[in-house]
From TrEMBL:
Pfam families: Plug (PF07715), TonB_dep_Rec_b-barrel (PF00593). Belongs to the TonB-dependent receptor family. Its main location: membrane. It is found in: Cell outer membrane. Residues 1-28 form the signal peptide. Keywords: Cell outer membrane, Membrane, Receptor, Signal, TonB box. This is TonB-dependent receptor.
Amino acid sequence: MHYPKARQTLMSLAVASACAAAAVPAMAQDAPVKAAEATDVQSVVVTGLRQSLISSMNLKRNSDGIVDGIVAEDIGKFPDTNLAESLQRISGVSIDRSIGEGSKITVRGVGPDFNLVLLNGRQMPTSNLGDLNGRAFDFANLASEAISQIQVYKTSRAENATGGIGATVNVMTAKPFDRPGMHASIGAKAVYDTSNDNLPSDVQASRSLTPEVSGLYSNTFANNTIGVALTGSYQERNLGYNTAAVSNGWKGPYAGNTGPLIGAGNQVTNAPGATDLYSLPQNLNYNFNGVKRQRTNAQLTLQYKPVDSLVTTLDYTYSENKIQTKRNDISAWFNFGPSASSWTKGSPTSPTSWTEFVSGSDIAMGAADFATKTQNKSLGFNAVWKATNTLRFELDTHHSTAESGADSPFGSSNTLGTASFSRGTTTVDFSKDFPVLSIQGADFVKAGQQVTGSVFTNSYMKGEVDQTQVKGAWKVLEASELKFGGSFNKVENRSAFSNQQRDTWGGATSPADYPSSVWHPNSIGQYFDQINGSANPNLFNQFYTFNFAQVRQIAATASGLPALYMPKSTFDNDARTQEKSKSAFVQFNTDWDTKFPIRTAIGVRYEKTDVISTALVPAATAISWVSQNEFPITFGAPTFTTLGGSYHNVLPSFDSDIELTPTQKLRFSAGETIGRPRYDQIQGGQTLNSLVRTDGGTGSQGNPALKPVKSKNLDLSYEWYYGKQNFFSVGYFKKDLENYAGQSQIDATPFNLHTPVGGALWNEALSAGKCLASDTTCIRNYIFTNHPTAPGVTAPGVNGNVNGTIVGQPSDPVANFRITSFSNQKKASLSGVELNLQHMFGDSGFGVSTNYTYVHSGLRYDNNKVGEQFALVGLSNSSNVVGIYEDKKFTARVAYNWRGEFLSSTFDGSGPNPQYVEAYGQVDISLGYNYNDKLSFQIEGINVGNSIQRVHSRTQNQLESVTQAGPRYMVGARYKF
């Protein structure tokens, strides 16, 4: 809270400082990590989009430190249907998209794991099967109807919770005492997602038009001493997206005079120089995805004020997000035999065209059908007691959970592979945005489709937070305030999964087992018509889709092994982490009545965290060679291991603002913040990935003793409020970060697993002179022909050279594994500039809000370097332009959001290779009409320009993925009672 400016004498300042110093030891009690008290700002009643922008401006103007936010247009009417898409309108905030919606945020170049999300000042648990061990909050789980405002704290303050290096985001819900009296509304929308129309029928939802309904009721009784608010919403969405990808990453990089490109029979145009780096595609995949989403949100808030000095609040929040996904795909896998290729100039270089000379290889066509469900539940109690005119206390406690798991009998994800073994010479043209696959000799009649391998995954994640916060504020003299408090947190995370994998990719059944009617002919190019290059006449423009459930049942019956075509009911990997944190803070705020009035806040926060991490991991027992380049591990009974760690931090902070004139402010902030490691970085146990290749296997292990990333922050800003509705600001920020967990690989031989690669039978096949080391099919055939009864050899079945197994024997070499682990070894720094302008053109009804953020770090990924690297992910420039028009009847908004290219990962599906998300811009529009004071209508369009998303690796031609979705349109009405 802020008190009116008063003259601050040296004597009064000395007294206040003494009081603050005396209070410090008194607060050195137990209490923990994540307690945030919202900055008190003036109460504003908002009635429209224009007033929403003004209220957001006033939030920024009246806050201590650098705070941005978004305020609802009206009760139950937030500006965007998705909270992340609202947040991207704020300078410095960029979003990651999933299924065409905003899901996670990056702030000032700091990635999603290091931004803390609070709900009404409370730390929220996270649960996301797409990122099984991360800390990033998924905003797609929360509907916007119950949200009154979002506050984004960009500077550190002792009173705020820790965990947000980029920002701490406080999502605030509507409460009955905020607006006394009765308020109620109901709204309905029809959503038309055009992306559902651009899908094969086997994955397409039956309708593209889906409903959304929401309602809100808030009232106060008994002379405004009792309040109740109830909000609820239900939303359906049917959508689709189509992706072309090198889905298993790029093999390499290699120096130009080494690797698979160097060999007899290779025809190379513009060959890489001896020291130039090059990489080869592991595969090329086109996949077509149909998604159904149902989201349910509800909140009940009860408030009671028995006396004027005491306000109590009890609230319960519930959300459920259910997603069903169906996929069909077609892919070609490369084995790096004789080839022809052409290359870009320079280093690193990548192929503009890659051809492999093969015969009778597989044209793989797969399908998936799975579903997931995420539930968030939060029960909280808050009491604010104004003991005297100068002393105020607050107690807040809550228990919150986030839980995600499978919502289908087929598991949380799956793949059912089929193939026609008729692929001849295969080429991929990488010269355009769209990679063009060409295949010679395909014959689906002579080589009918059959089920090959399959994977059924059962994943589970649960986050749980128990948090109690106690705070106080003591008004010292006329213009000073001492804030103090403490908190205790217990955060638990559990992530578990199991795979039921049948590695019979060379053929699990026979083509005769499947009626021809189960395969549905289709073409490829039509689903990528917005991507440059998809109209290439050389495209292999045919494939077959199929119904996953139908073909799965046939395969289960034909194989006689139905249990292998369902997910496991138990978990093979189960990681459980508990963090207990205690914290205490003291913060002294004071106003200085000088020539230029100054407000300062100086504070310190102490935190101590203990970590216990337990993991169940399967014990590996053997390696089997089952197809050309796949060596799956056989696992035995799993075992639990437990590790621990602890750390503590003292985090100072200082905020000040100088009122240069009644309309101009200069701000300065400095402080330290921390961001906790990801759960996969601190989980116990060592996990081996199930597939081994000819060059060895991979795995991972955590380190519970990791310390959090610590950031030393500096912020400067100038703000000019040159009108009731207008402002301009420019800010500079700098962050020096240390204790980043470096991801490095170590060589190990866990479980002393023996591999056939390099064993006696392998070496005999090579010494016979008929096989090259790269021709694994030839080596397998030699062993099956000459040693069909040798130990570990199971002779091939009806499909000849592709479905026998060879198990590593004690005399064979021990397999090497590259184990990924973590340690505090990395440092980084970043800096940037934010520009904001909001201008309303008098009483014309027109206005514009725009911002630009520039972020820079000297720590960039070196594309010409081999091996693991540390670089900041998520670092990108961004900008927004929002134009509005509003009068008594109409409201119109056109918003353009742009995010520059950024590094999203330093590992792809193959190993230490970068993934860059290319620059992306999106246009959204909305139009509202107020029929009268109670009834209004809305039209909205999302991604109306049908933008595509593309990801590449070391060069632009080195495609990782390119995705086409489509625009989404909504028509709705809202009635206020």
